[in-house]
């Protein structure tokens, strides 16, 4: 399991959300509060959109809590849309290629959860990835495979449908390998403009998913009711800042507005 | 703060003590039970005596819990005397040079604790290190400085006296910089034959220190009453396996026998 | 391209061959003499057989020339059979999982060369790997895939035949993707008792492959004419110490004796 | 020895200078042309000025030539003034803290060369560092010590004088330890607005130092005769783009104009 946060709104320094919150993502790397695994020390990553079409990507295998490069970058880089993730490996090796977020062109994906029986299912799940995308598979994780399976289902044209179809096919593969391990996910996806997030599990025990408006420097600059943060858990204790996304639902963020919709695998 | 374990006895594979205990050191890297900091993920190190006069030294900056090299080495290497340490940085940077154990010729030292006001005291503490040893200072940590200060006080001829004198001088330096931060240590030292361990603090709140005989493959091969393990906390729940060293005391292990003695700075 | 060396003979410290030769493997990491790429700084690995059935494996992503852990291990560990490798990536990412040697149970493989058009061929080559072995694929390199394809062809029972069949199938896959990039290999394989090495390319331009008896501490202890080293290039300038394996040939080492045989893909 | 480049001029993406030149710094990490050591693979670093008073700092211990984070950052980050450095260790360990550039508040320093007899001189050179700065010494390298000695000599008020005085004192210390190893440097220093560079050695064999105007996207946007690049060696083969700084001289860059002046230790 892992922890993640996505931001979209007025330009802020990454440190505003990643370090300066009461329960910031970086503090969650050392001690998460809503996760099955307290410590998320098996690497981290950030993806941010700047002046280019494709986002920047910075991932490393050290724990986030003591990484001086991450600290400095977060103090320098401003962005209107960024993803950040701290990892607790569920079995695959600790390498930069297995760190989230995963990127393809202007698309970025990050994930908390797992595909059950991954080592048994892996090859069949990878067979869902079309050759066009398979050449860009750089790691061995279930999360990257899920992203690429969704890309192969047409994610770039139909993000929600493609994710739904990819998960549906993964569930079929899992079913052939027994049912002792569930599929679970809270995940976020973006093309650099719109963000989609998903909360789903095969056993009605999905990891948590929130959206809200924590007390960053963006808050005062945003119009009333605008949402700028989506996260695996709240980054502060002010409950009025956060809304939980229900089990089996997705979320679409665009221009500060969020819509929540039922999300089930195809 | 950190966690550590020292072994001396019949040859065992390192994994026997480092991985296969109920509360092994490696599991303590992710979740220690007796430490002020639960997570000890800022690097690790092992030093082991084999067929050469000087020990082997293997240190890395990744968390111990997922390091495949450590796992493989611990499965291959047998030793009659080894030290192992998992680190939680108290401020100095995460680099191999700051990972314990520290080695000088056939001597090895590892430490849990800290010199209070380290950044204020650092230069003066380093001035305790004689030129002969200073050229081998590879890192910037308080622990390595303490070891080298003790070497400069004649550690190789008089380990307990030199450690006592070095700590005494460090306490004097600390006193000149205020008293808001204590000196605390549980530490172990060896020349490859005898092990000394120390439990001391300036505020009567020393980190824990134990010796005993956990259920390893060495246990059956050792004579009755022989001790083979010294550790910052027990590696199993069998209380009959462990003895606590009192506050302000040292321990000398030789040939399976332990003697405990009062230890105060000179 | 990469550099590698395999040793089998009387127990020696690894440093004897890896560091103390005139043109040792570690010096080749900084400046190889017979390689298309001079610098082999994209990680390294060693596998050594000790007291257990399975070998130890130590791999890291830093250049070998300055790695203190490798230096210390090589000074401590004695072995009767070990493999060592320094890597120059041909495109896949620098991670421990992509470092050679690769291990499966008691088997170890390392490789210099490449599968041409790897990113185009990768998926089809991976499809040669049977499910039994695919679950152990930890990286994304062509070299590991080739090893696993050969395992799937029955490497454990018929090493030369399986390697021949695996390469034959790889060449068929490559042919379907054009012929602008060749298949090239010099590689070594062992089960812990016997060593096989292979020199082959699809364009009659195979990387070099040598066997011999360099001036290590093993030399005096070995019977006349016994060979203890197989390498991608000689580790000293004494030509009487080395024999070149011809293009399109394999080598079998057992008990100090070497036989050379024609090697072609099935 | 090491390689470095400093840029100041119109905002450019870092990749423009670091990757896209004919002989870019990153290609120099694998194969430098004007350096005593061809390979500069013992880590790298960049410091860049953006929207904050203090620069960003990104340093890592892997070779620059294959680092995906550096590649991505260089593609995203634009800056009007940045330093970049690839390291070949002259003896001190490979750690982030020993990677250049070194930063203090808004000041940044990087260095090619060495203090002769460093391990003998180290302690005395460190004694040149005033307590105010010593607390920020994070590594063990001669280069960082020289920077901090110069800070202690008043670098922030009088950069050239302080550097001259610091080097003078270092030379005195070196003289007491024999003369078999020279002092050599080509170095660059900035406060974020002005750049100073220095070329000096104790044996009239200083490392090379150039300034010029290579073919980047900045060239067309700069006024005639404006200089935007200072480097340890040219990044392209167009000799009209580059001027060599003579032995024993310094350089001051401000607003696109360069002045060269004699530089000798005090």
UniProtKB/TrEMBL annotation, chains A, B, C, D:
Q: Does the keyword Transferase apply?
A: yes
Stretches for region Disordered: 229-248
Question: By its UniProt entry, which Gene3D superfamilies does this protein fall under?
Answer: Glutamine Phosphoribosylpyrophosphate, subunit 1, domain 1
Keyword list (alphabetical) reads: Glutamine amidotransferase, Transferase
SUPFAM superfamilies reported for this sequence? N-terminal nucleophile aminohydrolases (Ntn hydrolases)
In alphabetical order, the GO MF annotations are: transferase activity
Q: What is this protein called?
A: Class II glutamine amidotransferase
